[in-house]
Amino acid sequence: MGGKENNQGYTVHLEAFEGPMDLLMHLIDKNKIDIYDIPIAQLTEQYMAYLQQFREFNIDIASSFLVMAATLLQIKSRMMLPKSSAPVDEEEDPRLELVRRILEYRKFKQVSVVLGERAGTYEKYVAREPLPIPVHHLPPENLSISSLMEAFQTVLTIKEEITIPKVLVEPESYNIQDKMQYLLEMLSRSGGRILFAEAFPSGHRNELIVTFLALLELMKLKAVVVKQQRLFADIYICIGDMEEDDE
How far apart are CA 45 and CA 73, in angstroms? Predict the structure, then answer.
């Protein structure tokens, strides 16, 4: 009786190679060939067999594969030539150039594997913009009214009011508009910036209060700003459109 026919189909798997050097490395690793002592005849035969296999399955062969095939055949023919009786230098071995190219290709291949692994790792993460480093005791962008009141209270404490008998001198009246003009003129003469305490030169309490009210009115009108470089530093009164200088 005849054997049972097997009607199942079969699949032929062809390796995918990036180029002729990739095919050579595959053959060397597959046959555990010593790169420094390549059996060029065996390697050439297997390389040509792969190209023939590609042709049988109508796979286009790049010119680089054919150039490598020609190179292997050339090396094989040179290896078959009769050897001269003269001592042969190691560099005259026809395989040396091929060995150098294979070693160089292996280095690039190893590096590409490492880079591919890193790319696979880092593609799972999303980069973000650098975050600001937290700094303690940041300088205030602008002083609050309460801070100004505390600074003004310090001025009142430092300035000693001169006591004059009322029977001899009538108390002088002060005008907010006049003090506003006074502060602007002082700023103009001082290059657009003065110390907070310099705005209150007089020791008369009424004048100090009116001057402070004039300062608040100028701040409301955005004609001046009050700045402090950092905590516990001197307080400055500046013209509104003036850039803040670094100390």
Answer: 9
Residues facing 235 on adjacent strands:
228
Round to whole Å and give the CA distance between 219 and 226.
8
Annotate 131-186 with DSSP letters as a single string: PPPP-SSPPPSS--HHHHHHHHHHHHHHSPPPP--TTTSPPPP--HHHHHHHHHHH
Please give the Cα distance from 107 to 163 (Å, whole number): 94
- Rounded Cα distance between 110 and 105, Å, is 9
Query: Which helix (H) or strand (E) element contains residue 28?
Result: helix 20-30
Cα distances (Å, whole numbers) of residue 44 to 41, 140, 206: 5, 79, 108
Given its phi and psi angles, is residue 126 left (phi above 0), alpha (psi -120 to 50 degrees) or beta? beta
The pLDDT tens digits for 48-83 are 888 888 776 666 677 778 888 888 888 888 888 776
Non-local (6+) Cβ contacts of 240 within 8 A are 222, 223, 224, 225
Q: Would you say 186 and 198 are in contact if contact means Cβ atoms under 8 Å apart? A: yes
Single-letter amino acid, residue 119? A
CA 69, CA 63: separation in Å to the nearest integer?
10
Task: State the amino acid at position 170 in one-letter form.
Answer: E
Instruction: Place 6 in a pLDDT band, splitting at 50, 70 and 90.
Output: very low
Residue located via tokens 């003065």 = 194
- Given a cut of 80, whether residue 140 has pLDDT beyond it is no
SS3 assignment, position 239? strand
